[in-house]
Write the structure tokens for this entry.
Amino acid sequence: MSFPRARYRTAPDIRVRPVNEMDVCLVYTPSNPRLYALNPTAWLVMELCDGRDWRSLERKYYAAIEPVRSREAARAELEHTVNDLVGMGIVEITRKIDHLKTTNARLQGGTTDVTQSQS
Amino acid sequence: MSRKVNLESIKRAVHRHGATAPAIQRLVPEIRSNDEHPLRMLDPTIDYVIGTIIVEWTFGVPYSKVPAFHKFLKDKEAFIASAVQSAPGVSYLGTYWVVSMGSSHYRTLWVYDSKDAITGLNTLLKSSTPLFNAVKKLRSHWAADPSRQELMYQPAAAFSDLSSDATQNPFVEMCLP
């Protein structure tokens, strides 16, 4: 999971609907039509996947849930959850160079998606 | 289009729930076919039920608004219950809180003798501003919940014979043995 060049981000086509009064987040994956309900912790993991690398993801996740979990336990459940999110098509793994190209394209108003999954 | 993400709000939710392990549940949507049944009239032999037509509003209210909502009910519910009786065959049975630890969920129950009673309440609401405003306030809590539901019930015993429904609707027919 912790490829040094990998970046984790939410898939661009998913539909996200926070239900704040129930503390859940609903996510729809149109490419594989399914609906998911994420509890707050899974929701946090998903939102942390904003293009950051694994090390940053791990650091931010641990900072958010300490002291409830040890660093090792946090790492294990983060890895498990990100794996699940990737498998469900909610999060995708991109290479660093792809992520930069996509970000540039978005900033310039382009629509070209140069993402290439690293599965 | 990019989404606005409030990470701090999500973190607060995480800790409100004791930072439980991440959980993702797949939801299987209910696909409703059009096997609808015509409403039944009041059956005098089914006199043990609370009503012929029951309408239930199901909704949640954020905790920050719970005290004000309960105060509103204490102040206005008796008025609503009394005022709707001006429409024949209409009763307001109250708004009930799911009393348990967890989310603040409510059920509001209305009872009608017939479809005409529902029409009668609509007419009354148009002519009585105080009642309209009170029900509007109650309804606004229901409307504010994206997960709200509104369900209509009739006594199941009133549907003991579905054969006439089946002759009118093939979707009913295909569901019968």
